[in-house]
């Protein structure tokens, strides 16, 4: 198990380095941020001054080496727009995104897992078809479109909920529903598939023939075994929550990382964009790493198969 974990951690580190390098190169290949930030009638001398001040006058490989040196010292760069440390701007927004993402994840789990279990137990009934219809709707509906529909219905027509901001708990309801719907739909679908697969196993049929109650078979025998593939899906989807928050926060003007990323991309604020994208990548990598390690703990056969494949 120790060797298995070390290999996964090394892969996570290499993935983060590749993401960091890709983001660095692509952002600088898409144009000059100085021309974007300064007025169109700015003098060439002024442009050259700011390029030199921000280190953009150096060759790309020199900029990259300096960037790595700064990262090794915990320096994520200075915001071109606000002249503040990029990490400081991001840390201010993390609580809002964490609240939104955590609430959406909780909503998806509370609805997705029970619906998937019941749909599997009642396979091919009207309830099963209803759950699957919800699942298809949930992961097919774009976040921005669902958010706009909720705003039109509950803010403009019914006037029950505020359409933007984050001042009260009422501001949280529509963004959480928007972000949590796709997550809950995916969890319901995968829970149903995993439960159906386990319910058809020979040991489940044996338990039924011995007279074990349906609830006992479902929750004590089937659910623990169905949880193994479900852990993988939940981990991956939780990592995607931060990426999905970009669209949701923009629609509802939620002051989190997603909205900061959109504004920073529009103004070519390289340091902030790099830092946010690295944070999103780190969230995805850590979610995958946690899933791999947890899966290896829950199913020791994973370690055995990995060892055999290397040999």
What can be said about this structure in brief?
The protein has 311 residues and is an all-alpha fold.
Instruction: Report helical residue fraction.
Output: over 70%
Residue windows where pLDDT falls under 50 for at least 5 positions: 304-311
So what's the CATH class of the domain at 94-267 and 281-300? Mainly Alpha
Distance separating the two termini: 16 Å
| Helical/strand content category | mainly alpha
Q: What is the overall silhouette?
A: flat
What is the chains' assembly state? Answer: single chain
Question: Please, how many helices?
Answer: 13
Largest sheet: none
Radius of gyration computed on alpha carbons? 24 Å
State mean pLDDT (0 to 100 scale).
Answer: 80
CATH domain fold name of the domain at 94-267 and 281-300: MetI-like fold
Tally of DSSP β-strands: 0
Note the run of SSEs as H and E: HHHHHHHHHHHHH
Identify the CATH architecture of the domain at 94-267 and 281-300: Orthogonal Bundle
The fraction of residues assigned to DSSP E strands is under 5%
**CATH H-level superfamily title of the domain at 94-267 and 281-300:** MetI-like
């Amino acid at each position: 198990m120790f060797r298995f974990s070390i290999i996964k951690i090394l892969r996570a580190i290499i993935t983060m380095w590749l993401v960091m390098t890709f983001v660095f190169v692509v952002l600088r290949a898409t144009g000059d941020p100085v021309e974007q930030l300064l007025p169109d009638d700015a003098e060439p001398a002024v442009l050259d001054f700011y390029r030199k001040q921000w280190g953009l006058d150096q060759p790309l490989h020199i900029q990259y080496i300096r960037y790595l040196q700064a990262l090794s010292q915990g320096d994520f760069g200075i915001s071109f727009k606000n002249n503040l440390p990029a990490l400081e701007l991001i840390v201010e927004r993390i609580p809002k995104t964490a609240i939104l993402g955590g609430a959406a994840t909780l909503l998806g789990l509370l609805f997705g897992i029970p619906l998937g279990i019941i749909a599997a137990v009642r396979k091919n009934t009207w309830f099963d078809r209803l759950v699957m219809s919800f699942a298809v709707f949930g992961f097919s509906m774009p976040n921005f479109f669902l958010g706009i529909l909720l705003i039109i219905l509950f803010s403009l027509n019914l006037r029950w909920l505020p359409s933007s901001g984050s001042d009260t708990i009422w501001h949280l309801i529509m963004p959480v529903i928007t972000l949590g719907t796709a997550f809950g739909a995916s969890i319901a679908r995968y829970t149903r598939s995993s439960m159906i697969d386990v319910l058809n196993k020979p040991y489940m049929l044996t338990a039924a023939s011995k007279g074990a109650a349906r609830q006992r078979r479902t929750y004590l025998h089937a659910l623990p075994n169905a949880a193994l593939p479900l852990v993988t899906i939940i981990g991956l989807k939780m990592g995607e929550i931060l990426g999905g928050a970009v669209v949701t926060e923009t629609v509802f003007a939620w002051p989190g990382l997603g909205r900061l990323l959109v504004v920073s991309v529009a103004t070519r604020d390289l340091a902030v964009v790099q830092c946010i994208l690295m944070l999103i990548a780190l969230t995805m990598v850590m979610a995958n790493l946690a899933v791999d390690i947890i899966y290896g703990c829950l199913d020791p056969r994973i370690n055995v198969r990995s060892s055999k494949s290397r040999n």
